[in-house]
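Q: For a teaching handout, I want to show students what a protein-ligand complex looks like in token form. Below are the inputs, and the small molecule is 6-O-phosphono-alpha-D-glucopyranose. Please produce the holo structure.
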Amino acid sequence: MRLTVLGGGGFRLPLVYGALLSDRAEGRITRLVLHDLDAGRLAAVSRVLADQAAGVPDAPEVVVTTDLDEALRGADFVFSAIRVGGLEGRAADERIALAEGVLGQETVGAGGIAYGLRTVPVAVGIARRVARLAPDAWVINFTNPAGLVTEAMARHLGDRVIGICDSPVGLGRRVARVLGADPDTAWFDYAGLNHLGWLRGLRVRGRDELPRLLADPELLGSFEEGRLFGPDWIRALGAIPNEYLHYYYFNRETVRAYRAAGQTRGAFLYEQQARFYAAMERPGTPALKTWDATRAEREATYMAHNREAAGAGGRDAADLESGGYEQVALALMRAIARHRRTTLILDVRNRGSLCALDSDAVVEVPCLVDANGAHPVPVSPLPDHATALVCAVKAVEREVLAAAESGSRARAVKAFALHPLVDSVTVARRLVDAYTAAHPGLAYLRT
Ligand code: G6P
Ligand code: MN
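A: Here is the structure, written as tokens, with 6-O-phosphono-alpha-D-glucopyranose included.
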């Protein structure tokens, strides 16, 4: 089996490779093709992979290339993990929004729209290329904003593109842990959009265990989301929100904390990663050790400003280990390539799963996965306030897709203005001006 990774020089690639190395079963990935626009980043990551593979018999062969067509030909699976505009672009997305007093974040609010506007045209170009050169390949989209980007690609690849995110899995695992349930046999009643979902139930042997958690303030205070949102708000909601909903439910506090911070998340990662890639150019650098220390620092500081704003303290040890993205991706590939039926929470076209949305809208819901792909499971309707939020954000995503397709600036303004976290059309207009001035990748917004 051959796996191609687009954005193969990315920092998190060793997590994927680590997962591949642990897979000894028949039908595993034997050839890994890394594609990146930047040969230096490919060389850096290759050094880490070589350390990881040392002493492992039959480690998957690694090939690097900067030629997209060559990377795609013959691929069974394609991971799309690109970052259009780099971390510098992410930092600009955050800075420009925060200067207007609205949320600057990679996937949520104004920052997410700017990133989406930049990424969609590139993702569509890739989807078209895959459809032509590797029509039978399964595409697993890691690229954020993952729901929106998956929907853009699905218009060209249909159900052959599947989006993934580790935050619902992490949430499910944390809740299962505090309830003493086995996450592998529990059923997670989770639904929404990417970074905008709610865990409404957790069934063990047919019994919903979530009410037991909701009734116990001490248990609620013992895991990340419980501390972030506070037991009272979670009990009022009757569901556990995805951590990214902190930006909605506590918008003022998060915007204030982000504006007060010396550095945005993107600016921090930009500097951190620049140091890492520079170190990899020095021959004596211990590659795997340096990568792992950088990864640990990244994990420890994840959503630090939100936790600070909520007085939630540091992260739990279990949340600092990885085991997120790469495990979901590996489980998904296994289910498809070896017809090992499983259930995973994925970003796929709705097909009636969430009744408030049309069937082509990409949603994040539990799916049955087998050799035929991912099949969304119908879920119970969301409560009204959640439906309203999901529909509002989906409408914004559709404006982003329309702007990317038509090059219409007015549609881009509409995307920002309709977002629940952007409170003025005037602000939306200024955001479009500032973003187009900052990002060469938005030059297509002309008409
Ligand atoms: C979570 C999110 C991802 C995000 C990742 C890293 O896993 O679900 O979408 O890419 O965190 O976030 P960071 O701020 O470290 O880039
Ligand atoms: Mn995610």
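A: Two things your students might notice: The mean pLDDT is 96. DSSP finds 21 helices and 13 strands in the chain.
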